[in-house]
Write a structure and sequence with these properties.
alpha+beta; Rossmann fold; 2 domains; eight-stranded mixed β-sheet; five-stranded mixed β-sheet; about 20% helix
Length: about 525
């Protein structure tokens, strides 16, 4: 048998269950992902004997209007802002029967379905049921946390309706009468369109479903929820709420900016109370965020993202502070640009190896993770390695632990530039020469409330590492979540929330998304929303 045939035989055989051939939104995203998955073979399309739909006329009208408005007003601005292909947001219906050449079977034709020897059936219907005994591992489906029993509404509709900034998505598998939760994750939602939110959640859930299908996990009992039913007026109410949010957000963006600044202090990061920090104000034409510090000859060298308002992108800059004093406010400092590329740069993570200093600036636009060595400190750097290539990664951080180097990074697998949700880990014996191997449990965290890295690692009293993660909410980077890593091997990973950590308290009403400590210094960033005229002094 040829290698190609051996590979094909080893692929998981799945069926796709639909109650209409026209797929859109999350169903379209799942369908296309499974067709392209290298370890999965779509061996059969199972069609329900009749179209199952229960949408009312008012819902259909509101939904059509919402989709038309989203396509006209939001698709291009979102694609431009996130740097994604506008075609990803195309919500046109896809004909499953014409798009895929897999054999078809009617849901009532049990003999034909059983003859296909399916490992699992993925349910993309909007209300129909299928006998789970028709596949070895039952019938699988995608569900959102607030609407687990609601197969009719767009994915994440109830979170969207109630204004929740994140949505829990679960992969559920039904064998017999029992439904198991095979995998789950918490993703940030798109608050300005339920059709775009549905599609983008589906693109991210598709990767999670593909991972789950490849693993032979037993799962946990799924908590049953009450079925949700939309009233006749909830769709137009949701539409009104949506554009009220959009109008308020547009007004804020028109007249105000996020202003990040840096706080610097001496001391132990885990202490409950800190000396008053030195406040470093950003200049009017930019803001400073994602700071990392290193002390050389008694001087504090800060490396940070400098976001240039005029260029609408970040560069990596440096500033040296001779003797920072508690309670002092520093203004009009002159920074020096270290890295400037056509794409956005941020998060200049610093680490030492073999007595040398290295930096990993975030450069997702280059589709690679790059390591630079300080050859003429502080302004001269030379690229020495590319641990990861052909990947969009953000906020890469290294940890030396138990004789290995661990690379933590936030990778987007959905194509919508989501670096808030999935945390991936790689490991190597040498951080420069590698080779870097992926963790067996990747992604080790799927949670927009803590998944994105926020400055690297602190050290607990017992020596275990504490991962700093960004807590996302209604606004980007609301605060830092501290996660104690309790298990880290090549095949296992576990972390738990840690309370009582407060390295440098930020001002009331401010947001923060970064903490870093090194050489007896602690550095954080904090953000205020300020009128544009105020920063252009």
């Amino acid at each position: 048998m040829s290698r190609k045939r051996e590979t094909l035989k080893a692929r998981m055989r799945i069926g796709i269950f639909v109650d209409t051939s026209k797929l859109r939104g999350w169903r379209k995203a799942i369908f296309k992902r499974l067709l392209q998955a290298p370890d999965v073979r779509v061996a059969q399309i199972i069609a329900h004997d009749r179209v199952v739909r229960r949408e009312g006329a008012l819902w259909r009208a509101a939904d059509a209007l919402e989709r038309a408005l989203a396509k006209r007003l939001l698709h291009r601005p979102l694609a431009r802002a996130r740097g994604i292909d506008p075609a990803i947001l195309d919500d046109g219906a896809l004909d499953a029967f014409e798009y895929c050449d897999a054999p078809q079977a009617a849901a009532s034709d049990r003999a034909t379905i059983l003859a296909a020897h399916l490992d699992a059936i993925v349910d993309l219907s909007a209300g129909a049921n299928l006998d789970s005994n028709l596949a070895r591992r039952g019938v699988w489906r995608i569900a959102a946390g607030m609407g687990t029993r609601d197969k009719l509404s767009p994915l994440g509709f109830w979170e969207f309706y109630h204004g929740a900034p994140v949505t829990e998505i679960a992969v559920l598998a039904r064998a017999g009468a029992d439904e198991k939760r095979i995998a789950s994750g918490v993703y940030s939602g798109f608050m300005w369109s339920w059709s775009m939110n549905d599609l983008m959640l589906g693109l991210r859930a598709a990767a999670m479903l593909e991972d789950a299908l490849k693993k032979d996990a037993a799962g946990q009992d799924a908590t049953p929820t009450e079925p949700r039913r939309r009233s006749a007026f909830q769709a137009p109410v949701a539409l009104l709420r949506t554009y009220a949010r959009l109008a308020l957000d547009g007004l804020e963006r028109a007249f105000a900016d996020d202003r990040w600044r840096v706080l610097l202090a001496r001391g132990e990061p885990l202490a409950a109370h800190k000396a008053e920090p030195t406040v470093i104000e950003s200049p009017p034409h930019s803001y400073w965020a994602d700071p990392f510090v290193v002390v050389r000859e008694g001087r504090c060298h800060l490396f940070f993202e400098e976001y240039l308002y005029a260029a609408r992108r970040g560069v990596i800059s440096h500033v040296c502070i001779e003797n920072p004093q508690p309670g002092e406010t520093l203004r009009d400092l002159k920074s020096t640009v270290i890295f400037d590329e056509p794409h956005h740069l941020s998060y200049p993570f610093l680490f030492t190896f073999g007595g040398d200093l290295f930096m990993i600036p975030e450069s997702g636009g280059a589709r690679a993770v790059e390591i630079w060595k300080a050859t003429d400190f502080p302004h001269g750097w030379t690229r020495v390695a590319r641990p990861l290539e052909d990947v969009t990664a953000a906020d890469t951080s290294l940890l030396e632990w138990n004789g290995k180097w661990w690379l933590f990074t936030n990778i987007d697998r959905s194509g919508v530039n989501d670096h808030r949700s999935e945390l991936h880990v790689f490991y190597a014996d040498n951080p420069i020469s590698g080779p870097w191997r992926p963790h067996a449990a990747n992604p080790v965290v799927i949670d927009a409330t803590c998944g994105r890295m926020a400055g690297g690692f602190l050290t607990a009293e017992d020596g275990r590492p504490i991962r700093c993660g960004q807590k996302q909410g209604r606004r980007y980077g609301e605060e830092v979540a501290y996660r104690l890593i309790t298990d880290l091997t090549e095949t296992t990973y576990a972390e738990t929330p840690l309370s009582g950590v407060n390295p440098i308290p930020v001002a009331a009403g401010a947001r923060t998304h970064h903490v870093s400590a090194r050489d007896g210094m602690i550095v954080v960033d904090e953000c205020f929303v300020v009128p544009k005229w105020k920063r252009r002094r």
